[in-house]
Design brief:
Helix content is about 45%, strand content about 30%. It has 3 helices and 5 strands. Helix 1 packs across helix 2.
């Protein structure tokens, strides 16, 4: 399912316009990104938790030259942990 399809379904379900729902969806994504960037964890009851996860420095191989070794610096990546209710719905 694409982003526009999700927005359309949410708009229909909430009796809102597609444009208003799209603005809210974009605002939600922006806020989640900002919170994760600042190291916060976001918990949505019944859905799951978004959290920043730190990756350690590691050695890797250059993608264009498999002979060249590179150091991948430590960095933070977003992670999602689904709630038990969401897991049950998907089963």
């Amino acid at each position: 399912m694409k982003k526009s399809e999700i927005i359309k379904k949410v708009a229909e379900h909430s009796n809102q316009s597609f444009a208003d729902t799209a603005k809210m969806f974009e605002a939600f994504i922006a806020e989640v990104g900002e919170a994760l960037r600042s190291g916060e964890k976001i918990t949505i009851s019944g859905f799951g938790t978004f959290l920043p996860s730190k990756r350690k420095q590691k050695e890797g191989v250059h993608p264009q030259d498999s002979q060249q070794r590179i150091t991948i610096p430590p960095h933070t990546v977003p992670r999602f942990k689904p709630s038990q209710q969401l897991k049950e719905k998907v089963k």
